[in-house]
């Protein structure tokens, strides 16, 4: 286990003992057996560590499921990864770091959607600004659904949510691209 993983485990363990707002870098460095300078070599602060934890967990969960054929699987894996880390997610979402986590999730989702848009629009005359608009719309919708689910205590079955999202995206995603292409051809 590398230093970053040890720090992540130490943070998770400390979060079981006390709120995130009361955890210090000294708490983590003592638990891992490193000095503060080693912590700062890897992270600027605890919130950057949290962001790294989300990044690592998300990348592990999604893996290669980021294509037009597999984005639904990737989204389902993201929901399940969040659910499997429920206590950690709920505590970090209640903290000041929530904005950082949301930005990170938007970035991950945008990459998934851009891959799907590029596959769907291959060979079509779709402007980059239109791809970005479609990606922005869907990333906000999908992460909004994820965040609402988290705020609601993650009570609903994530597979049911993703199945319904897939219907909405399938029935709206391709027609949106087609409409942008048609509008461009008419100009």
UniProtKB/TrEMBL annotation:
Alphabetized InterPro entries for the sequence: Homeodomain-like_sf, HTH-type_Tx_Regulator, HTH_TetR, TetR_C_Firmicutes
Keyword Hydrolase: no
Domain HTH tetR-type intervals: 1-61
Keywords attached to this entry: DNA-binding
Location of the DNA-binding region in this protein: 24-43
GO MF terms held by the record: DNA binding
Protein name listed in UniProt: TetR family transcriptional regulator C-terminal domain-containing protein
Organism: Grylomicrobium aquisgranensis
């Amino acid at each position: 286990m590398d230093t970053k993983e040890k720090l992540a485990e130490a943070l998770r363990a400390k979060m079981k003992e006390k709120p995130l707002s009361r955890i210090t870098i000294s708490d983590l460095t003592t638990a891992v057996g490193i000095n503060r300078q080693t912590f700062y070599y890897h992270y600027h602060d605890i919130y950057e560590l949290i962001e790294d934890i989300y990044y690592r967990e998300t990348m592990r969960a999604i893996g290669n499921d980021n294509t037009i054929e597999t984005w639904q699987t990737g989204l389902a894996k993201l929901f399940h990864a969040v659910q499997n880390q429920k206590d950690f997610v709920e505590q970090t979402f209640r903290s000041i770091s929530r904005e950082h986590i949301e930005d990170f999730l938007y970035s991950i989702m945008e990459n998934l959607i851009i891959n799907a848009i590029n596959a769907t629009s291959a060979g079509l005359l779709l402007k980059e600004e239109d791809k970005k608009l479609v990606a922005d719309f869907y990333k906000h919708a999908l992460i909004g659904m994820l965040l609402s689910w988290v705020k609601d205590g993650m009570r609903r079955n994530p597979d049911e949510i993703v199945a319904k999202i897939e219907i909405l995206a399938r029935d709206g995603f391709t027609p949106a691209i087609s409409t942008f292409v048609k509008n461009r051809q008419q100009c």
